[in-house]
Amino acid sequence: MTEFIPGVGAGSLLRSELLADGRSTRIGAIHQIDYGQAVVLTHDRWKFDAGGIPQFSFLLATAQDVNEPHVDDDEVLLLRVEGTSPLSLERDLHAVREESLRTALSNNQDPSPSAVLDAELDPFTKNRVSFTGVRCKILGTFYEDDVDGQKVLEFGADVDNFYATSTYRVLKPIGDGLATIASYLKPTGRPVERVRIGAVRYSATRRRAKAAKQADAAVEVNIRDFIGNKTALLGMTRMGKSNTAKIIIARTFVVSERQRAAGGHPIGHLIFDPQGEYANPNVQDDTEIAAIGADHVRIFKFGADGTQPHVKPLNINFFSENQIDAVQGLISDTLSGDESGYVKDFAGMSYADVPGDRSATTHAQRARLVLYGALMRAGFAVPTNFRARINISAAFQQKIVAELGRNPFVQVGNSANFVAVAAADVENVVDKIVELRDAGDADASNFAKDVRWKSVEPIFTTRSGNRSVRGWRNLNPLRSFHSPATQNDPAIEIYEELLRGRIVIVDLHVGAEAVTKALSESITRRLLSKQTEVFTSGQEPPHIQVMLEEAHNLFSSDRYKDDLDVWVKLAKEASKLNLGMTYATQEVSGVAHQVKANTANWVVAHLNNTTEVRELAKFYDFGAFSDAIIASEDRGYVRLKTLSSPYIVPVQIDRYDIALVNEARAAAGDPPLTLNGTAL
User: Fold this and answer.
1) Integer Cα distance of 240 and 122 in angstroms
2) How many CA within 13 A on the CB side of residue 575?
3) What are phi and psi of 76, to 5 degrees?
4) Which has more confidence, 594 or 514?
5) Where are the beta strands (DSSP E) in 482-578?
6) In 195-312, which ranges are continuous DSSP H helix?
7) Which residues partner with 79 through β-bridges?
8) Given the DSSP bridges, would you call strands 311-313 and 297-301 parallel, antiparallel or unpaired?
9) How large is the greatest C-alpha to C-alpha distance in the chain, in angstroms?
10) pLDDT tens digit sequence for 573-613
11) Interhelix angle for 324-335 vs 513-536, to 10°?
12) What number of other Cβ atoms are within 10 A of residue 614's Cβ?
């Protein structure tokens, strides 16, 4: 190959990585150039030999002047094809061609289009009209630098000099040269672990690229760009967003297992799965995240019966004291349609025991007694041997015993005041307390005086002041999400699994939207609380990745104004709490600008309207791809911008498949999945 760059030896990185034979092919020269744009002069034959020059192709422009070796030209400009541009003599050539066609039409006996328009041009004229201009954006400059005594390939996102147009040669990168450009990572100071995510794809039409064997130039990313940062997966439904998410999850799991093996902390993954596509096999992938292995993946779902140790119930035990916060959250959400004051009071109280505060604990226990009675009236299955603990004076106990004609209390503490009420007696005891209180009994009034009791009582009695309310009837939709067998709050279990570096899939495809929404918020709230505890103690919070679908419902501009909203809090505090966040949506405009402004990685598939692409065009130079993003509906065809990549790369994302599952299993020391004894 001719030496393009004077003063640079045969072993130079610019030559070996970008300009060597097999890494680029000559397609033309520079016709016009300034600091941001260039027009490339090329010929039909050169384009054909190079496998075509589709829009958005990367091109390289290199200066060469063999007679002036002192010229500083140890640089290569990176161009991206934007469109076409007229050449200086093109108008004249068009006029000549038009005139020749007029003459042919006048002189030819056959006036048909084929006879006139297909007339053979003489070779000289044909070659002259075969030159075309390609309009390009200059993305920046590749150059060599010395770092710690080693030559490295650097990239600057501008141009520090340019020469006369005749000085430049223009090449189309192919093969490994194209892969080098598409996979280039700028230094960020973070560790680098390169992984393949797909192949360069310039256009929806790929015939020439495949024929020229230019359709599989690998695109590699630094998987650590995704750990602890925000990643946007944007595109219409069924455009491959979840496939991309699975690749990122599996690759991150590999990093996590390597860290574990080296004595470091693993990385947990929390996936909210509204469609069940991460927990279950689907037609698109023929496999699922859960295939990585039962030892590494935990699935929380409604209706889990315990027959599979890695599949755990998402159901809450509404009668469990240690799950009362989750119970309160669910009930509050269900009651939210009722404007009664008791609803607001119920949502604003805490019904959990308060260590060190006997008074608060006493009133919380009494309020739970009423709530348990309301749940029983709503038909919730009561756990075996269930008893409700309360602190009640011995004198008041005797009044209730006298009213009921039997003793419903069992002493459970050192004092006669600390008792428990069996499930069969809970409703009767609450009824009697309310009845005595309404009759003016001082002990009953004192027992039920706290705001906690008053906020729960209307749910049990269906009376709020002087009017009737639905009360416990509102709890009926929650019955299917209650399991008397659940021992612990799933939110706590989930966090513990994340600390172990497991992939936790919260399967939400079964269940009423209001309930699954409340559960998701409860889980996220607990995650934020635990991470904040670690952070405020002066320690480094563990790395956890969170995957969210339908992000436009979580991070809307209006919602982003509410600092108390759990999703807003996640978006604002994720980075400092070492929570990486991957969010997927088809509505770019539906996500608050602040969230997008802090997004490090962008994966953009097909969007179907100008409103969304106009919003997207506010970030980086996605605006250049607007028309193509709307026009191209191929699944997995995306425009990719990562934290370490200095420019957008058009990519066909690889399929998440068994090979990637086995790569993840191998990192964990597990054998590959097999079919009939053969590794898949």
Assistant:
1) 50
2) 9
3) -130, 125
4) 594
5) 503-507, 544-548
6) 207-211, 241-261
7) 59, 138
8) parallel
9) 123
10) 988 999 999 999 999 999 999 999 999 999 999 999 999 99
11) 140
12) 13
Of residues 262 and 509, the one with the higher pLDDT is 262
- What pLDDT is recorded for position 468? 85
Q: Where are the alpha helices (DSSP H) in 183-317?
A: 207-211, 241-261
Structure tokens belonging to residue 489: 């709050």
d(CA 416, CA 397): 10
Q: What is the share, in percent, of the chain residues with pLDDT greater than 70?
A: 89
For the segment 348-362, the average pLDDT, to the nearest whole number, is 89
| 270 in Cβ contact with 498 (< 8 Å) | yes
Q: How far does CA 389 lie from the centroid of its chain?
A: 44
Residue 8: the pLDDT is: 39
Between CA 514 and CA 308, with CA 487 as vertex, the angle to 5 degrees is 85
Question: What's the number of CA atoms in the CB half-sphere (13 Å) around residue 229?
Answer: 21
Token look-up 């969304």 returns 612
Measured between alpha carbons, how far is 231 from 249 in angstroms, rounded to an integer? 12
Q: What angle do CA 489, 491, 494 make, to 5 degrees?
A: 115
CA distance 582 to 223: 13
Burial 123-161 (b: 16+ CB within 10 A, else e): eeeeeeeebbbbbbbbbbbbbbeeeeeeeebbbbeebee
- Sequence-distant (6+) residues with CB within 8 A of 400 are 408, 409, 429, 432, 433, 436
Report the distance separating Cα 519 and Cα 585, nearest Å: 21
pLDDT in tens, 205-224: 888 888 888 888 999 999 99
**Dihedral angle at the C-alpha atoms of 595, 598, 602, 608, nearest 10 degrees?**
30
Give the helix/strand (H/E) hosting 537.
Answer: none
Q: What is the pTM of this model?
A: 0.81
How far apart are the C-alpha atoms of 249 and 582, rounded to whole Å? Answer: 10
Contact status, residue 572 vs residue 598, Cβ threshold 8 Å: no
**301 SS3 class:** strand
Per residue in 56-114, pLDDT tens?
999 999 986 544 555 556 889 999 999 988 887 767 666 766 767 777 777 776 677 76
State how far Cα 567 lies from the chain centre: 14
The tokens describing 45, both together, are: 């034959």
Helix/strand/coil percent split, the chain, to 5: 40, 20, 40
Q: What distance in Å separates the CA atoms of residue 308 and residue 299, rounded to the nearest whole number?
A: 10
Q: What angle do CA 537, 543, 549 make, to 5 degrees?
A: 120
Q: Which of 255-264, 268-277, 300-309, 377-386 has the lowest mean pLDDT?
A: 300-309
- Position 301 pLDDT exceeds 90: no
pLDDT in tens, 221-237: 999 999 999 999 999 98
Place of tokens 């093109």: 90
In angstroms, rounded to a whole number, what is the distance separating the alpha carbons of residues 622 and 56?
12
The answer to whether residues 323 and 315 touch, using CB atoms and an 8 Å cutoff, is no
Contact 378, 475 (CB under 8 A): yes
The predicted structure's pLDDT at residue 93: 67
In whole angstroms, give the CA distance from residue 204 to residue 182.
18
The runs of H, that is alpha helices, within 537-657 are 566-573, 593-597, 610-616, 626-631
Count the residues in the chain. 680
pLDDT of residue 322: 82
